[in-house]
Amino acid sequence: MREILLKYLKTSLNIVSIIVILALLVIVTKAKINGNEVKVAGDTETTIVAEKITVTDATTATTTYFLAEVDTEKIVEAEITTIPETTKEEITQEESVYVSQVEVPQVQSTVLGKTSEVDLSYFNNTVFLGDSRTVGMKNNGLIKQSNTFAINGISHMTFLTQTFTDSVTGITSDIFEILSVRQPERVYIALGVNGVAFMNSSEFIKSYKQLIDKIKESTPNSIVVLMSINPVRQEETFSNKNLNNTTIDNMNVLMLQMAMDKDIYYLDVSTVLKDENGLLKAEYDVGDGLHYNKTGYTKVYDYICNHAVYK
Question: What does DSSP assign to residue 234?
Answer without folding.
Answer: -
